[in-house]
Write a structure and sequence with these properties.
Elements (H helix, E strand, L loop, with lengths): L2 E7 L5 H12 L4 E3 L8 E8 L6 H4 L4 E9 L19 H10 L3 H9 L3 E5 L8 E2 L2 E2 H6 L9 E10 L4 E2 L5 E9 L5 H12 L3 E11 L2 E2 L6 H10 L9 H4 L5 E3 L2 H8 L4 E2 L13 E5 L5 E8 L4 E7 L4
Parallel strand pairs: 3-11, 13-15
Antiparallel strand pairs: 1-3, 2-3, 4-10, 4-11, 5-8, 6-7, 8-10, 9-10, 11-12, 14-17, 15-16, 16-17
Helix pairs in contact: 1-7, 4-6
Length: 314
């Protein structure tokens, strides 16, 4: 069993918990994922099984898409609804007036627009990012805070999908859609958005609807996965390794070339034959029956394709 499962992660468990559940359901030890979701978040989690785990490096940097609810009114120490409410550092009377009277559509759009494009984010303390080999959230739980360097991310789309709604506690909820590069923190985006409006903010709901080419419509719940395992139909929902990296150019191999690639030997491009990709580009190295044998790297100078990651059947 080698391939990719698109899991609709439920709220309340970690991405590691999902991997553990998939291991038990599939009875397969080699299971991993390509991008962590916070425990309170739901949606697309790309899970790799068997030899497909070797493809993680080609999938983890994919663009992500989210639907979120930004709660305007106060910030939390985690940047989401699971954290403790933070003292309001903004002018109290201004924040109260804003939350009571609401924000003009033009104000919201200006704040959204200011956070589109290439921006800098400071990773939150409650995150899995490591500094000096230590995870930030482990330090945060001990009450420690360390200096973090800002990282550049790209927010391609950041838009409101509905007008703000009023809550009983005088906060407001704004539903948004975000398309961004890997490594973007939606919690930080929400906090920065609130700062543009002069009010504390945090993420109340977060759902990943796409990771690269994998959409929420392709996802299955853990219960559905368990049902498929019991009925012996797991293969029907398992995405093949070749399909998982179908965005890469393909390089067809004959039987002799397959044997060479399986042994890690470079494949020479014959005279008159075109390179399957640009110099240093990664390509799919496929057998005649469409099986992904390896992901290779083109070398235009040597006119070879080097099998960087071999995943074909032994």
């Amino acid at each position: 069993m080698d391939g990719v499962l698109i899991i609709d992660k439920p709220a309340g468990i970690t991405s590691h918990d999902v991997v553990a559940r998939v291991r038990r359901i599939t009875a397969h030890r080699r299971v991993g994922h390509t991008g962590t979701l916070d425990p309170f978040a739901t949606g697309v989690l790309v899970v790799l099984v068997g030899r497909a785990t070797r493809l993680a490096q080609f999938l983890s940097g994919a663009e992500k898409e989210y639907q979120a609810v930004i709660r305007l009114g106060y910030a939390t120490d985690t940047g989401d609804r699971t954290g403790q409410r933070m003292p309001d550092a903004t002018d109290q009377s201004h924040a109260k007036a804003q939350s009571t009277q609401g924000f003009r559509k033009e104000e919201i759009e200006r704040a959204l627009a200011s956070l589109r494009g290439e921006i800098e984010q400071i990773p939150p303390m409650y995150s899995a990012r490591k500094i000096a080999g230590r995870k930030l959230y482990e330090l945060a739980r001990r009450g420690e805070e360390v200096e973090r360097q800002a990282v550049r991310v790209t927010v391609s789309e950041f838009e409101a999908t509905a007008l703000p709604s009023q809550n009983d506690d005088d906060t407001k909820d704004l539903r948004v859609r975000v398309v961004c590069s890997a490594g973007t923190y939606i919690r930080t985006l929400a906090e920065d958005f609130g700062k543009r409006l002069g009010v504390g903010a945090h993420v109340a709901e977060l759902r990943r609807t796409r990771a690269g080419q994998f959409k929420i419509e392709d996802a299955v719940t853990l219960d559905r996965l368990a049902e498929a395992a019991e009925s012996g139909s797991l293969e029907q929902i398992l995405i093949s390794p070749d399909a998982a990296v179908s965005f890469l150019p393909q390089f067809q191999l004959d039987c002799d070339a397959v044997r060479r690639v399986m042994n890690g030997i470079d494949i020479e491009i014959e005279d008159g034959q075109e390179m399957p990709g640009a110099d240093r580009q990664t390509v799919r190295m496929r057998s005649a029956n469409g099986e992904l044998i390896a992901v290779g790297i083109c070398d235009s100078e040597r006119k070879t394709v080097h099998p960087q990651v071999v995943i074909g059947s032994e």
